[in-house]
Amino acid sequence: MAARKRTSDRSGSAPAPGAAARPEPPLPATPIPAVDPARPFADPKAVASAIAQLSPDEAQFFIGKLEQALRRRRLQAIGYLVALALWLVGMVFALAYYGAAPEGEFVGWVFLVPFALAGVVMLVVGRWTGGDG
Predict the structure, then answer these.
(1) How many CB atoms lie within 10 A of CB 83?
(2) What is the model's pTM?
(3) Contact (CB, 8 A) for 38 and 27
(4) Could you read off the pLDDT of 25-46 as tens digits, one per residue?
């Protein structure tokens, strides 16, 4: 049996007769920078100068929305940390329960409980904070 010659095509089939390989498009001379829409507001001084240009009512509205968003993000972060701690403690107790269980008894379900608890905590925190990022 003769060994089959490998081609550059990974599918194992040879290209169709007469088909030319497509050349790769040339790279641009200078890379196109990615635009981050939040970049102008990363600096607190830029945010303060942007707020200073608003009318007092608009500035008050913007500050209220900004504080609300920061409060929501802080509560979400605390919720994630509580869920993580609950999951970790639950896994330790699940491992202890699994180790103390009599031989031959199925207790594998106990490892699903910490995930369920963490999921419930994250769901409750997400609903409580309004969750839409």
Answers:
(1) 20
(2) 0.59
(3) no
(4) 777 677 667 776 666 666 778 7
